[in-house]
Amino acid sequence: MEPAESAVLSGKPSGSHKIAGIGIGFIPPLWKPREVDEILAVTTEEAKDITRRLATEEAIFAGTSTGANVATAVRVATRLGADDGGHHCGRLRLALPVRTCSAPDHGR
After folding, report:
1. CATH assignment at residue 83
2. Distance between alpha carbon 28 and the CA centroid of its chain, in Å?
3. Long-range contact set of residues 55-64: C-beta below 8 Å, sequence gap at least 24
4. Is residue 62 situated within a structural domain?
5. DSSP secondary structure letter of residue 3
6. How far apart are CA 91 and CA 73, in angstroms?
7. Per residue in 9-57, pLDDT tens?
8. Which of 11, 55, 59 is nearest to 31 (CA)?
9. Overall pTM surpassing 0.70 (yes/no)
10. Domain extent at residue 41
């Protein structure tokens, strides 16, 4: 996963982004592209949106790099099917559409 605004691993030019801790703007000397199946790009805005949703909907206080990782994980899980998310996501409504991911009532 890398910032869409600086997707150098995907062959695009280096650019400015606001996702702290990722997207160094150059290809590291130890980079081994043959060991990578796929590189997903996440925009700063998408990372910030998921970061805000994690805080407000799940009380998970994290940075934008976490938001970027969650956004990417959600994309991959959705693409793989992830058995509709209901079994695994519990309360995490932001991962998949609310209609497929309802919170357990635990007898309430």
Report:
1. 3.40.50.1100
2. 22
3. 57/93, 57/94, 58/91, 58/92, 58/94, 63/20, 63/21, 64/18, 64/19, 64/20
4. yes
5. E
6. 16
7. 999 999 999 999 999 999 999 999 999 999 999 999 999 999 999 999 8
8. 11
9. yes
10. 2-100
The answer to the question of residue 106 being in a domain is no
Tell me, yes or no, whether 77 lies in a domain: yes
Answer whether residue 35 is part of any domain. yes
Burial pattern 17-54, b for ≥16 Cβ within 10 A else e, equals bebeebbeeeeeeeeeeeeeeeeebbbbebbbebbebb
Domain count, the chain: 1
Q: Which tokens in the block code for residue 37? A: 């199946």
* Structure tokens belonging to residue 61: 């206080």
